[in-house]
Amino acid sequence: MTVNSADDFQGWASAHQCRFEAVLKNFLPADDIAPQRLHAAMRYSVLDGGKRVRPLLAFAAGELAGADQAKTDRVAAAVEMIHAYSLVHDDMPCMDDDVLRRGKPTCHVEYDEATALLVGDSLQSLAFQMLVEQPLNANPAMQLKMVRLLAVASGSRGMAGGQAFDLANVGKQLSLAELEFMHIHKTGALIRAAILLGAYCGGEMPDAQLARLDHFGKCIGLAFQVVDDVLDAEADTATLGKTAGKDADNDKPTYVTLLGAVEAKKMAAELHAEALQSLDEFGSAARRLRELGDFIVMRKY
Ligand code: GRG
After folding, report:
1. Is the pLDDT of residue 199 over 70?
2. Residue closest by Cα to atom 4 of ligand 1
3. Structural domains of the chain, with CATH
4. Is 201 exposed, middle or buried (0-12, 13-18, 19+ CB in 10 A)?
5. Whose CA is nearest to atom 10 of ligand 1?
6. pLDDT score for 89
7. Measured from the CB, is residue 92 less than 6 Å from ligand 1?
């Protein structure tokens, strides 16, 4: 069965997840290549776990834009490597200090702190290698734009900046606008980048359409975080594959602490509706993006 012939969303997503696991295995250095322990820890942190939401968003946007699978595989791998690095570093004692991730001991618990630090560093470098080793767009200037996009989304004006804001506000009450600022950066920036990078692998798209795709990413990225906050408060550790109730334990400001669970769920539903609205003009070509939007707000883990 090819990925495109899988008609239902679950079939499409599973086929991509399965195929992409092999892609990642191939892109990551083998664990018998020196330094073996670092490479084993990189593979441990990236493979065999995670919902692969960001890669699926890149594939869906790539399919919308008529992109080659080999190209979207590279941008999806780059984004997933950045995401995996952020989880490894986030779990370290100097940040969230957690012991469970994706149903397994966190990287620094399974290996050690120095290795976890180097896993994050190396995954970040490998992510950018993914974007420059092969042509991803007929226009080299566009490929440069793609590299910059991922750099900004993951750096101090994106994910890492959002994490700094998060760490600086532990134990504090934030306004809704401040919470939104934090999550648009910490969680939303990489989700947005996944969608645009997938689209940039395909044919040229008018700026207005790209802006609508980006608006979908902005809304669904924020919805992802609101749902994450609700799940942290309401789901159990076994279902999540990470320690539940961690936000309350760490005295973190969340949508649930600020608005209460009922209002937070309402907010997720509103963001979901706004996200879907921005895909209207794409018709059936945006079907997978819509379905991913549904999955993001309805997920249970
Ligand atoms: C360390 C630079 C740096 C950044 C860390 C992403 C992040 C920033 C921290 C993770 C903490 C966290 C739980 C954030 C909430 C949203 C989020 C990114 C959840 C994890 O993403 P999922 O649910 O994870 O997509 P899987 O394991 O499915 O890939």
Report:
1. yes
2. 86
3. 9-298 (1.10.600.10)
4. buried
5. 87
6. 98
7. no
